[in-house]
Specification:
221 residues; alpha/beta; Spore Coat Polysaccharide Biosynthesis Protein SpsA, Chain A; two-stranded antiparallel ribbon
Length: 221
Amino acid sequence: MANHAIIVAAGAGKRFGGKKQFMRIHGLPLFVYATRAFDNQSNVSGITIVVPKKDIKTTRKQVRDLGFKKVHHVVAGGRRRQDSVVNGLRTIRDKSGVVIIHDAVRPLVSSAVIRKGIALCRKHKSVIIGTKVHDTMKRVAKRLVQETIPRDDLFLVQTPQFYDIRTIKQAIAKADFRMEYTDEASILESLGMPVYVFQGDRHNIKVTDKKDLRYIQKHLA
């Protein structure tokens, strides 16, 4: 059974002020670090990178120049994240194995997380990672506290997310794509399908603003 990674790098970066996946950190585009983590993984056989359509040519050249061995496809993203993921899934012809879906702007993903996720996915079919919420959570409306939410069962979800290839493709085929899903697990949840969670890595942050870039620069130095 082959394992494939989909690196989602198709965002427009409107809130950030530019396509953060292509911002250079120590001379390399940010997406390169996430891609490298999977290219170096012995139990990952293929990688698809999903980028904005007009960035395909440049991305393919960067992949060639950097000598990535497992990047087999660079394809165009869609209007929403879920559309980009579907475009990536279309490149995977295997009927069995694990597909790993990862945000290009999480460059600090560890080999240990990837290995553990693949192993757990063999058993549970759908596996995500997250970190437990430690702060007190309040539901607020018009600046007024409505309630305190028990935090014992709350997780902040990260990528990568791990799915049996057949399971995720079946879920997408059944899902109502008029809805917008914030991650792939939400698609399975909407269909009543189980999703297993294991503890993630607090260093595996997603770049959302400039202060995150400083953190990333330090840890990738």
